[in-house]
Write a structure and sequence with these properties.
This protein has 20 helices and 20 strands. Helix content is 41%, strand content 17%. The longest helix has 23 residues, at 461-483. It folds into two domains: 2-216, 3-Layer(aba) Sandwich (Rossmann fold); 238-505, Ribokinase (UDP-N-acetylmuramoyl-L-alanine:D-glutamate ligase), CATH 3.40.1190. It has 506 residues and is α/β, with parallel strands linked by helices.
Length: 506
C-alpha cells in the first residue's frame, strides 16, 4: 500500500517532520527539489532547455531549488516567477536569492505571452501552486497556465498540477495538464480522482523526510495484492461455500459470469441459486458449480422463494446477490431477506442495489459483513445524492455513506474507491476496455470468491473488495494488452483472472 493523505494531513506531516523530527524546512524543500531534479535528469540529457515557472509560495520555493540543482548539473535553466521577487517570503525567498536579477518576473499577461509562447521542445517545471490551493485560479495565473498547456512542452508538475484540488481532484477554474508529476512523501487524493488524475500524468512519489511517529491514517493506494499459496493437505470445503443468487429471464449471462469469476477467485464450492426456469441454462454453462432452483414467476424469483433461499443458505460461508436478478417483487423479497439473515460475508451488486435503494432502511437490520458495489448512478439511488454531487466529492460521499450504514462501499469508476468509513483504498488498476456490460458481474464474483473462506480463512469484506477490484483491474489490463481495449469484453477480463492471480501467488 502507498499512503494517501489529504492536504490538511500532509501539512500536519510537514509540521511533524520540522518540529518533532527536527528536519529544517529548508532541508525538506531541498529534498523535494532533489526529487524533481532526479526525475528530469534521468529522462532528459543536458542539451534539454529547462524552464521553471514558480509561484510565490513554498511550491515556488521547491521550483527555485530545483532550478539551482539542475543548473549545477549543467542544464540551461530559465527561471520565471508569477509576481514580484521582493514579495517572496521565508524559504521561497531564500532559494530565489540564488538567481537574483536573473529571475524573470511575470507581472501581466503581455509578459506572460512574451516569455511563455515559445516553450516547445523545453521541459517546463510547474511550481506555481501546491497542494494548499483552496480557490479558483483566475487572472494572470490562469493566463500563465493556459500558455503552459498550449506550449507543447513536456510539463513536470511539482507535487501536484497547479489548479487541481488536492483533496477532490477538481479543477479549480483551470489546471496544468502535466505529463509527469513528482509528489512528496505521500500521494494525495487529487492525484487519483478524476479529473485530477487526468492532469497528473505519470506519478512518482519521492520521500523528503522522516515520518516516524506520525499517524498517517488509513487511506492508501492499492499497488499490489499478494495471495496465499494453498496447503497441499486441503479439499474443496477448505475454501468455503458460496451462494450466488442471480439471474432472470433474458439476464442469465450476468449470473453465469459472476459464478465463473467466483470459481476463478478460489471459491471451493459455488451454488447458483436461480429461478427454476433457468436452472438448465446455468447447469449447462457452469459444470463446475451446483445449481439450486428457486420458486419463480414470469422468469424471475417469486415471493414464494424465501423457503428455498433458507434451505440454500444452510452451511454457506459467503453470499453474492444481484447480477441479472431483476427488481421483481419476488427478487425484492429475496434481497431484503438476504440482507437481514445469515451472519456471513455478503456482496450485493446490480439489481440488489436497486432494491436496497428502494428501502435503504433495510441496512439498519443487516446481518453479516456487507459489501455494496455501486457505480455512480446506483450510488446516487442509494445515497439520495445527485450524480453531479457524487462526481464533485466522491471520496467524501462514499466515506459518509459507508460509516452511516456500517458497510463496505466499493464505488466503481476509472479510480475505484473502497471504504468502510474508517479505512479507504483507491484502486487505479484497469483499462477503458472494461467500461462495458458484465465487468461489474465479474468483479462481484471475484469478491465473493475471495470472501468465501472456509477453513483457510478467506478475506473480510473490505480486504476482499480491495483485492477483487485490483485483480479485475489487472486482468482487464492483461486482456487489453493482448486483445486491445476496443475489442475486449468482460468475458476476456474473466479469462485473464487466472494469469494475474497466478503471478500474485508467486
Amino acid at each position: 500500500m502507498i499512503f494517501v493523505l489529504r492536504k490538511n494531513d500532509m501539512q500536519a506531516l510537514d509540521r511533524h517532520m520540522i518540529e518533532e523530527r527536527k528536519i529544517p524546512s529548508l532541508v525538506l524543500m531541498e529534498n523535494a527539489a532533489f526529487g524533481m531534479t532526479m526525475a528530469i535528469s534521468q529522462r532528459f540529457d543536458k542539451t534539454t532547455k529547462i524552464v521553471v515557472i514558480c509561484g510565490a509560495g513554498n511550491n515556488g520555493g521547491d521550483g527555485f531549488a530545483a532550478a539551482r540543482q539542475l543548473e549545477a548539473k549543467g542544464y540551461e535553466v530559465k527561471v520565471c516567477l508569477v509576481g514580484k521577487a521582493d514579495a517572496l517570503k521565508g524559504d521561497a525567498a531564500v532559494n530565489a536569492a540564488f538567481f537574483g536579477s536573473r529571475i524573470i518576473e511575470i507581472e501581466n499577461e503581455d509578459t506572460a505571452q512574451e516569455q511563455l509562447s515559445a516553450l516547445s521542445g523545453c521541459v517546463v517545471i510547474d511550481a506555481v501552486f501546491g497542494v494548499g490551493l483552496s480557490r479558483d485560479v483566475t487572472g494572470l495565473y490562469a493566463a500563465v497556465i493556459k500558455l503552459m498547456n498550449e506550449s507543447g512542452a513536456y510539463i513536470v508538475a511539482c507535487d501536484i498540477a497547479s489548479g487541481i484540488d488536492a483533496d477532490t481532484g477538481a479543477v479549480r477554474g483551470i489546471s496544468v495538464r502535466a505529463d509527469e508529476t513528482v509528489t512528496f512523501q505521500c500521494v494525495k487524493p487529487g492525484h487519483l480522482l478524476f479529473p485530477g488524475r487526468d492532469h497528473t500524468g505519470t506519478l512518482t512519489v519521492k520521500e523528503i523526510g522522516v515520518s516516524d511517529g506520525f499517524i498517517q491514517g488509513q487511506m492508501g493506494l492499492a499497488d499490489k495484492v499478494m495471495l496465499q499459496r494453498r496447503n497441499a493437505d486441503t479439499h474443496k470445503s477448505s475454501f468455503g461455500k458460496l451462494a450466488c443468487i442471480a439471474g432472470s429471464q433474458g439476464l442469465s449471462g450476468a449470473g453465469i459470469m459472476c459464478v465463473s469469476a467466483a470459481l476463478r477467485a478460489g471459491a471451493g464450492l459455488v451454488t447458483a441459486g436461480v429461478p427454476a426456469c433457468l436452472q438448465s441454462v446455468f447447469s449447462g454453462r457452469l459444470p463446475e458449480s451446483m445449481t439450486f432452483a428457486l420458486d419463480d414467476f414470469s422468469g424471475s424469483l417469486s415471493e414464494n422463494c424465501i423457503g428455498g433461499l433458507q434451505k440454500l443458505m444452510t452451511g454457506k460461508t459467503a453470499l453474492v446477490a444481484g447480477p441479472g436478478l431483476s427488481v421483481s417483487d419476488g427478487a425484492a423479497s429475496a434481497v431484503r431477506h438476504l440482507v437481514t439473515h445469515d451472519d456471513i460475508r455478503k456482496v450485493f451488486d446490480a439489481d440488489a442495489l436497486n432494491i436496497i435503494a428502494q428501502d435503504i432502511g433495510v441496512l439498519a437490520q443487516k446481518k453479516g459483513d456487507i459489501v455494496l458495489t455501486p457505480h455512480p448512478v446506483e450510488f446516487s439511488r442509494l445515497s439520495g445524492k445527485s450524480i453531479e454531487e457524487i462526481k464533485r466529492s466522491p471520496l467524501e460521499h462514499a466515506c459518509v455513506f459507508a460509516k452511516q450504514y456500517g458497510v463496505t462501499l466499493l464505488l466503481k469508476g476509472a479510480t475505484t474507491i473502497v471504504t468502510d468509513g474508517e479505512r479507504t483504498m483507491f484502486v487505479t488498476a484497469g483499462t477503458p476496455g472494461m467500461a462495458r456490460g458484465g465487468s461489474g458481474d465479474v468483479l462481484t464474483g471475484v469478491i465473493g470468491g475471495l470472501m468465501c473462506g472456509g477453513k483457510e480463512g478467506g478475506m473480510a469484506g473490505f480486504e476482499a473488495a480491495v483485492s477483487g477490484a485490483y485483480i479485475c483491474g489487472k486482468a482487464g489490463e492483461a486482456a487489453a494488452r493482448d486483445l486491445g481495449a476496443l475489442s475486449m469484453t468482460a468475458l476476456d477480463t474473466l479469462n485473464y483472472i487466472a494469469e494475474v492471480t497466478k503471478e500474485m501467488m508467486e
